[in-house]
Each structure stands twice: as C-alpha cells, then as structure tokens.
Amino acid sequence: MTAAVNVTRNPDADWVAWAAGQTGIPERALRAYVAAAVTVNATVPACGIGWNTLAGVGSVETAHGTYGGGTLTEAGRGSRPVVGPALNGAGFAAIADTDGGALDGDSRWDRAVGPMQFIPSTWQIVGRDGNADGTADPFNIDDAALSAASYLCAGGRDLTTAAGWTSAIYAYNQSDAYIRKVRDQAAAYAASTGAAG
Question: Residue 79, Cβ neighbours under 10 Å: how many?
C-alpha cells in the first residue's frame, strides 16, 4: 500500500483560509488539523505526520464533523454531537459499553464519538486537550485532532514511509478499504494545495 504524501506546515491564518477554499475542508477543521500536526511533530519529530493525513481521516470519519448536516462552531464543537452506530456486532465489531454511556449515551454498547470518531475506551487512553481549556473533549475538533495525531504517531511510527503511514491508519481502522479511502483523500488534499510530491 502506498502512503499518501504527508504535508507539514505552520498554521498561518492566510494559508488556512486559502487551503480551505481549495480543499472544501471547513476552515475551523483545517486549522485544527494543521495545529495538531505541528504540535505532534514538535514533540515527536520522527513521526512526520501531515495535516492532510488528519484531514483524510476526518473526511472519511465524519466529513470533518459535519456529518448529518452539522457544522463546527468557532469554539470547535459540532452544532450537533456526532455519535456513531452501536458497536453491537451487527456489521461492526461488538464492543460492550466501557464508559457507562458517559460519552456516547449508550450504556449497553460503545459508539464512536466526535469528529474523529473515538471509541470511549480509546479516548480514555489517548484523549488530549488541544485547545488548552483544561478538558479533553472528543466532541471538540482541536482535542480530537490532537488526540488522533498522537494516536497515529504512537509506537514510534514514521508516517513519512509507506509502511509507517499504512500501519498508523490501520491502527485507526483495520480495513484495507478504509486505508485506501484515507490515502486517496489525503493525497487529493495535498494535490489541491500544490503540495503533492
């Protein structure tokens, strides 16, 4: 599996506005992806995660938090919470409730939550505060993007290599079709901003 090109850059406001127009990614989501990639690459420079990889995941998971017709507020929360289907074994893995329904509202089965679709048990391990408000909130795009970047870079993965990139996306969702969708979307975002290599 070939990796998508990873694009790294600083979150310059003018560039973010321009790139949002080129890609169709909501500006608020793109700002979170770029900031998360910059933050994680500063702390784990060997990872080399690109904003476009995070955007690829966000696109496939929830159309950047807009699934179901929602929008992202300036504070980074969805106008409506994005909660996935019950992970009850019917078409999905069976994952019994791990959080008493605290995040997903379901005390029988887990459901993926937020713009980057974290399972509550995974969020308990990797959830990070990306907007420095003192709370790690999976429904906030800043927190979710930073947590996703950290998760994808875990275990010393090098996302600048095809093997490292593929391993990271596979850890997020163990499906070859999913990997292809994220790769294609991430590569399209890179190409539309003139960053394809």
Answer: 12
In angstroms, what CA-CA distances link 25 with 3, 15, 18, 65, 67?
21, 13, 11, 10, 13
Measure CA 138 to chain center: 10
- Three-state secondary structure call for residue 26: coil
Q: What burial class does residue 20 get, using C-beta atoms within 10 Å of its C-beta: 0-12 exposed, 13-18 middle, 19+ buried?
A: middle
pLDDT tens readout for residues 46-90: 999 999 999 999 999 999 999 989 999 999 999 999 999 999 999
pTM of the model: 0.93
Name, in order, each residue with C-beta under 8 angstroms of 67's C-beta and a sequence gap of 6 or more.
Answer: 82
Residue with tokens 């990639």: 37
- Cα–Cα distance list, 35 to 11, 65, 160, 179 (Å): 6, 17, 18, 23
